[in-house]
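Dear colleagues,

As part of the handover before I leave the project, I'm documenting each prediction I ran so the next person doesn't have to rerun anything. This entry is a single chain, and its sequence is reproduced below.
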Amino acid sequence: MTKAKLGVIGIGWWSDVLASSIAGSERAEVVAAYTRDAGKRAAFARRFGCLAAESLPSLLHMPELDGVIITVPNSAHRAVALAAAAAGKHIFLEKPIANELEDGAAIIAACEQAGVVLSVGHGYRRHAALRHMRALIDDGTMGRISFAEAIFAKGRGLGLKDPGDWRFRKSEMPGGCFLQIGIHQVDNVLYLMGAARSVFGTFCRLETAAEIEDLASVLITFESGAIATVSANYITADRFRLSLYGTNAIATFDLVEGLLLQRRGEGSGSRLAIEPNDYLRAEIEEFAACISDGRPPEVGGREAMAALKVVRAAIDSAAKGRPVLLGDDPRSLPRAVGA
């Protein structure tokens, strides 16, 4: 089996996580890396046994390179992705697709014009427990889904002290913790519950020294009539939990505690034995398969824009103090109710 040869653009802790996840993969390998900091790229190259490219153009013009993994700050996604597409390289872009809907649409258009794969890193939906929740919906175990509640909490915001850190600045991370971590749960509920219809958001900044909002809670209504609350918190202990309420059962997934199923009529739930999987490797290996097979990825531009639209609508809703409706076209802009 031929491995996809990939270059990493933007070196930080997350690029290390992704590179480590595919070490030893039979489908993909990291062969080059670039970041502006020469020391960082040299250290990365030593750690993962790849080439430290001297510049972005030199990496993008490597003839043996099939695609790139882009982990630069959110605001740089458009420029780097457009350069990669122009060079004919397939793109795995870490979430969110962009900070702004217009930038996301430009990335999609550039990839379509260049005929390259665009895969976006919403990896949690690939977790074995999330896949099992989807199967419980599909086989009727859950019944009709009426409600979901999801939280992603991390203490990362309490450590943001340096204005030079891009995560410190509101201009670099609009919506604060909701864009950075809450969007993962947004993608999960869209995966489980279908298209969203409207959004109502509340954001605040309570503790962090950074400019960003460190707490957010968003109410989403779906085309099915179901509703969900998705919350993000950047100033507390770590927690990743999603509960799904159906007419037949409640399923709750916690990243640490596992998957619990409580059927209607039961006083408590039972833990389900789920075989663990490397969901980060799965998304990169799927990207590699899309390169070789020419098939679209599970989370491409359209799916990534659906999640970003919810986030941007929530930001707009919080500013206006009223719900915001979502359009059918994932590239269209949300509009406030009554506007």
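Residues 32 and 51 are 4 Å apart (CA to CA). The chain has two domains: 4-123+280-298, 124-277+308-325.

All the best with the project,
I.
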